[in-house]
Design goal:
The protein has 367 residues and is of the alpha/beta class. It has a single domain, classed as TIM Barrel. It has a 13-stranded mixed sheet. Bound molecules: S-adenosylmethionine and iron/sulfur cluster (SF4) (2 copies). The site of one iron/sulfur cluster (SF4) has 11 residues, from loops. One iron/sulfur cluster binds next to loops.
């Protein structure tokens, strides 16, 4: 018998094979978890690799040159990703976000977008398809992404000051190239563009106002995200979190803001509008105002593990089912079973004890 060697990357996080109930009913599009939350959003991670080393996400001390990323054979193929997405859409998912690592590094991503664009919800509507990117390849790819059927993009940008930004991405990448990517996305019609800034006290909180000033009146929606204790490698500390309330106060002192209604119930970003009509900003208060009660997101990692919470300590190995001899109905039943059991609410119960748990990295599961 030959011994099977499991690559380190595969064994990095605990996983278990999903249970397949044998009396499953067909998907109704109306799944609900133990807390009455629907399954509405799906985040698909398409790579665990990235060309940035953002200090809060992939610090070089952990993700150095000897770090072993997943081998190509471990990644879900576009066919596998589309099959998973189709099963989730039948269960009620209406919005799919592609993420990573850096999703635009996945070769031929446009083909995947085209395949996902063919999916239809139980009411016959196309799926809302979007992507989060560091924009390094956006200037080059915006047109082809739009042509493939991508509707919008979210761009991550943590500072408008070039020196601060280069320090944060830790690969000396200039702000000007990200701004060129945003311009190209706008020209290609990938709008409205959201720009996400993770705020870390003492690192880039001095950039809150300059970022607001830069994007006011641009038509793009700047959103400030509280620094979260995802993963185990970013050295998170509560005193580095700048509460969203402070962010809004700081901007309001220069440019008065008023709160506005959410676009839809359960929207995670709180929206604020400039009184002088120059657009809006959003805040995502994952730490100071957790939104677990309305969390309708499932996440699937690059190699096909389902996570029912960003802070989950264990994934469910859907790839084994995809690559085994399992019918759609069986995989669909396994997904329904897992969602029905879901009870996660990490941000509501965050404590010193939970902060010490071994969690998945953000670059692995993708925000
Ligand atoms: N590479 C792409 C990008 O940066 O847009 C997509 C993947 S990245 C993991 C997705 C989002 O997670 C980014 O907006 C990033 O800023 C955010 N993120 C990563 N680590 C975070 C943390 N510790 N707290 C809050 N947001 C974080
Ligand atoms: Fe890469 Fe995005 Fe993580 Fe930065 S936040 S290291 S761009 S995956
Ligand atoms: Fe959702 Fe988990 Fe985040 Fe709560 S902590 S909002 S359940 S992902």
């Amino acid at each position: 018998m030959t011994e099977r060697i499991i690559p380190i990357a595969e064994a990095r996080y605990p996983t278990r094979a999903p249970f397949i109930p044998d009396n499953a009913r067909p998907a109704s599009g109306l799944l609900s978890d133990r807390r009455g939350r629907r399954l509405h959003d799906l985040r698909l991670s398409v790579t665990d690799r990235c060309n940035f080393r953002c200090t809060y996400c992939m610090p070089k001390s952990v993700f150095g040159t000897d770090y072993q990323f997943l081998p190509q054979s471990s990644l879900l193929s576009f066919e596998e990703l589309t099959r998973i997405a189709r099963l989730f859409v039948a269960h009620g998912v209406e919005k799919i976000r592609l993420t990573g690592g850096e999703p635009l590094l996945r070769r031929g991503i446009e083909n995947l977008i085209e395949m996902l664009g063919q999916l239809r919800t139980p009411t016959g509507a196309p799926v809302d398809l979007t992507l989060t990117t560091n924009a390094t390849l956006l200037a080059r790819k915006a047109k082809s992404l739009r042509a493939a059927g991508l509707e919008r993009v979210t761009v991550s940008l943590d500072a408008i000051d070039d020196a601060v930004f280069r320090r944060m991405n830790d690969v000396d990448f200039p702000v000007s190239d990200v701004l060129a990517g945003i311009d190209a996305a706008a020209a290609a019609g990938l709008t409205p563009i959201k720009v996400n800034m993770v705020v870390r006290r003492g690192v880039n909180d001095s950039e809150i106002l300059p970022m607001a000033r830069h994007f006011r009146g641009s038509g793009h929606i700047l959103r400030f995200i509280e620094f979260m204790d995802v993963g185990a490698s970013n050295g998170w500390r509560m005193d580095e979190v700048v509460p969203s309330g402070d962010v809004i106060r700081r901007i309001s002192e220069a440019f008065p803001l008023v709160p506005i209604d959410p676009n839809y119930s359960g929207e995670v970003a709180e929206r604020w509008q400039y009184v002088d009509g120059e657009g809006e900003v959003g805040v995502i208060s994952s730490v100071t105002r957790p939104f677990c009660a309305e969390c309708t997101r499932a996440r699937v990692s690059t190699e096909g593990r389902l996570y029912t919470c960003l802070f989950a300590t264990e994934g469910h190995d859907l790839r084994t089912l995809l690559r085994g001899n399992y019918a759609d109905e069986q995989i669909s039943a396994a997904i329904a079973h897992l969602w029905n059991l879901r009870d996660d609410r990490y941000s509501e119960i965050r404590s010193d004890e939970t902060a010490g748990l071994r969690r998945i990295e953000m670059s692995y599961i993708g925000g």
